[in-house]
Amino acid sequence: MLSPLMFIIGFIIFLLYMSGLLWMIKKSHDDQRKRRESDLRNVDDNDYDGGGNWGRFDNN
User: What SS3 state is found at 29?
Assistant: First the structure.
């Protein structure tokens, strides 16, 4: 009699855990996509080696 109740409670905990895990994966994936898109907009056309601007003067 107690076994079905424990199974139901355990299943509810499992569903809550899995939904939270999938939500966090989706949220971090969306944040990473936003950062990647903003990085693509801020590309320096003169940065041929990909090391960034190591000079003393601004490229403006």
Answer: helix
